[in-house]
Amino acid sequence: LENKDRHMLEVMIQKFSGGPVGLKTLAAALSEMVETIEDVYEPYLIQLGFIARTTRGRIVTRGGYEHMGIPFPQNDDRQGELL
């Protein structure tokens, strides 16, 4: 992953407990435009299985946590929300 991709995962995990986090909120936290996240960062991270879209926002998946070397939260029911 490039630094920007890793930074997005770090922000989602550290500031938003892995999500769900809305796109506008994530864009503000990253100081990026919504379109940049949607068109540049998000497709690649989704393709790798590191993040997913849910009805309530974006979440970091188990694979994303593992890639970052951070333990996946136990009793995490967010995976049931995947679209």
Concise overview:
This protein is mainly alpha-helical and 83 residues long. It has helices at residues 3-14, 23-30, 34-48, 62-68; strands at residues 51-54, 57-60.
Name its key features.
globular, mainly alpha, 51% helix, two-stranded antiparallel ribbon, 83 residues, Arc Repressor Mutant, subunit A
Distance between the termini: 24 Å
State the oligomer.
single chain
What is the percent of helical residues? 40-55%
Count of DSSP helices? 4
What do the pLDDT scores average to? 91
Tell me what the structure shows.
The chain is mostly helical and 83 residues long. The chain has a single domain, classed as Winged helix-like DNA-binding domain superfamily/Winged helix DNA-binding domain (Arc Repressor Mutant, subunit A, Orthogonal Bundle), CATH 1.10.10.10. 51% of the residues lie in helices and 10% in strands. It has 4 helices and 2 strands, in the order H-H-H-E-E-H. It has helices spanning 3-14, 23-30, 34-48, 62-68; strands at 51-54, 57-60. The chain has a two-stranded antiparallel sheet. Strand 1 and strand 2 (57-60) form a beta hairpin. The longest helix has 15 residues, at 34-48. The chain is globular. The model has no long low-confidence stretch (mean pLDDT 91).
